[in-house]
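Review form for a predicted model. The reviewer records the input and the model, then writes brief findings.
Reviewer: anonymous (R2)
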Amino acid sequence: MNILMNKKEKDKFGIMLPIEAPPLKYSLFVADKLSIIMQHRDATNWLLNNFIQLVFYTDNLNTIDFKTHFLTIWPADTFKIDQHGTNLFLRETTINDSILDLDEDNLLEHIIKWINKGLYIYANVDVSKLRNTKYYSDVPLCHSSLVYGYDKQYVYQLDFNQNEDFGTLAIPHEDYINALLSKDLEKIFIEEKGMKAKYNLTLIKVKEEYGSFCKLDKDVIKYWVKAYIDCEKTSLGSNPFFNSYPIECGLNIYECVKKMVLKLTKDELLDYRIFHVLYEHKKIMLMRIEKLMTNNMLYDDDSLQNACKDMIELTHEMRYLCLKYRITHSENIINKILNKLDALKQIDTSFMINLYKAL
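Model under review:
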């Protein structure tokens, strides 16, 4: 099963809550939350107003952590479990063993009750317990899991399949129970997340729509464009609410990406996700330009749109080259990627300056 539901579906076997195709899919936790948020009529405006800044976590230039994303579109990292950066659209309630006693006998009953009430289940699970998935292993691995439906045999989880396509995985009840209540999670929570819990999940509900509260805002967009040009470390402003890490932002990320490419290729571990972030960032930028023009908030003689399309093409080529390198390990491919990153930065710099002047 590999379906994105766009309306509530009920039948005698269970319930599927509504899911929308997310505009960003470079990370599972980003795609998961957006698949719920995008149901809200103001969500697209909010996305186009804010998702402009790029953040690179520079710790990875010293010690690589493959469990993280080196490059991200801010503020997507505030979507993670226990970091409630989506509260404008979602009501989120945390459940752990200090709040509710869950075990192998009652977990499925609670899952059914929650989904019947329209609540999505967003949990930390030990995905190594999920048979017939790419994660199945003898080595415990904590990952996020968004469950939005169930029937007599399965719970339905949004995820990337074996081919890395985003869609739905049908998880047998027993496997999901074993994954959420895995005995290995308690140790992982302490060592990797700094929290003491046996299990950890969040119940999510889309907030009711009472009038329009998030319009396309030219001033907000202009603020973020300037922050991008100035390489302002904007995520540091969230320090009172989220952990902070050494970062570079905006146009400064290109040099970091080049260094990361060279570091990764020493061990022939070039990470496709970096280039997919850049690709989706430029795709969203083109959407933003088109929406601003449609709303008579921006005049473009096609130069801004054409620059966006050129950047989309460059990032698409880099995605292809990355996959090709993982097969051939050719040094020539790495040189092509580095040259394309230089070209992308040049176009991006000119584009952002011209966009700022046009706003």
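Findings: The two ends are 44 Å apart (CA to CA).
Further findings: Residues 331-358 form the longest helix (28 residues).
Recommendation: see findings above.
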